[in-house]
Amino acid sequence: MTAVVAPSLYSGLGSLYERELDSHGVGTEMLTHKWQPADLLAPHSDMDVRVLLSQAPADWEEWNHRLAAAHTAAVGREAVHRRLLEHPPGFAFTVAEADGRLVSAPELATWSLMSGSARDFQRWKSRAQMASWCEVDERFYQGILQTRLGGRYRLAADSTDNVLEDIAAYQRHCVAWHYLAPCWFAAAALATRTRCPGKTAALTQWRPDGLDGYAELFLRHAEDRPDARPRSARHLLRAAHVALEAAMRRVPDPGRPVGQAEGHARTDWVMTAGMLRVRVARWLYYLDPPPGVATEYLIRRETKELHSAARTLHALAEDETTPSRRLAARMASLIPDGPTTAGTLRAALAHWHRRKSTVQDFLSLSPDDIRP
Question: In this predicted model, what pLDDT tens digit does every residue of 318-343 receive, in sequence order?
Fold first, then answer.
């Protein structure tokens, strides 16, 4: 099967997903997905959804059960959805948080609108692009590089369990679109101090002297164009290592941040809360997936997200001298440590249920009440 840009497939998938969320009472005000339409290459790219709500639900745990049920129903519609809807949404925010510039600008700059107010969405995107470059940006883009460079990317970790056909094409896609393109995207942003909207844009627009051929090579392979030379994923991976070594020579060494984002600790709080707000739905789906869906590799991947959240929460807690710092410390104590397994996620679900008031308070805290 040839991977091509298929906006109609993904727009149709987005409409189906919105209907399932509505029918399960999830109550979204706006839906977005990460990356631009040109970055979603069928049938290999998954749709990474972000949910925006008019206000925090009265019961986040119960809301997550509805979200998990909606996602399960959407995946069950077509076998190909096992890959296209690999996991439940990655974040949930309130409209007030996005409107208050508390969603990380480099994160928001990658969003595409699925449903909701186009006027509000374009205003947020414009503000994200125009905001001054700061510490939040440095951490965001450096984080992408730190998780992939220096031998940390492993092709074997890009599981093929939910890929229905042409495994070889999917593995080439993984090298081009999960390894090379995100690193190129981050390198382009760090080199130019601009927030790039997506992978295709980065490979198209950032081509320093000597790198044009690499960019074109991986654009062809990402899209599985007929003019791409047939290569194995391993061969392509070696080329990616060489390309990124050359690209990183154009990236300034990490140094002192150019500036501090005003209220960056509040942004860290909202981004961490936004990620944790959907964790229960993810765990429920991973532990009880639809028939034929593999989730073991997704369970293992939770480790990275949860450890990152724990580090941020501990930093936000500091000396626990304010109510919000003490709340951050209590929430940090609920994050599983060590590798994630089905057993640790079941234990975390039970632990979060027992400490439901703490979880609810943390996930619902108004930005005005955050006093880090």
Answer: 888 899 999 999 999 999 999 999 99
- Using one digit for the tens of pLDDT, what is the confidence trace for 240-272? 999 999 999 999 987 655 545 446 889 999 999
Among the listed residues 218, 228, 201, 212, the one whose alpha carbon sits nearest the alpha carbon of residue 37: 201
Is 49 in a helix, a strand, or coil?
strand
In a domain, 256, yes or no: no
Q: Do residues 80 and 146 share a domain?
A: no
Cβ-contact 49, 31 below 8 angstroms: yes
**What gap in Å lies between CA 332 and CA 326, rounded to an integer?**
10
Inter-axis angle of helices 264-276 and 135-146, to 10 degrees? 40
Strand ranges for the chain from DSSP E: 4-5, 30-34, 41-42, 49-53, 91-94, 111-115
From residue 233, give the alpha-carbon distance in Å to each of 158, 200, 228, 372: 12, 20, 13, 46
Strands, DSSP E only, in 303-348?
none
**What span, in angstroms and rounded, lies between the C-alpha atoms of 232 and 120?**
44
pTM of the model: 0.94
Q: Which residue has the tokens 């119960």?
A: 62
Same-domain check for residues 126 and 10: yes
CA distance 102 to 93: 10
- Positive or negative, the CA dihedral 48, 240, 150, 206 is negative
The residues with which 241 forms a beta bridge, in sequence order, are none
Q: Are residues 54 and 108 in the same domain?
A: yes
DSSP output for 187-247:
HHHHHHT-----HHHHHHH---TT-HHHHHHHHHHHTT-TTSPP--HHHHHHHHHHHHHHH
Give the domain extent around 360.
4-131+261-369
- Is the domain of 120 the same as that of 223? no
Residue 51: helix, strand or coil by DSSP?
strand
Contacts 24+ apart (CB under 8 A), 168-172: 168/232, 168/233, 169/1, 169/2, 169/3, 169/44, 169/224, 170/44, 171/233, 172/221, 172/224, 172/231, 172/232, 172/233, 172/236
Q: Cα(275)–Cα(281) distance, rounded to whole angstroms?
A: 11
Q: How many domains does the chain have?
A: 2
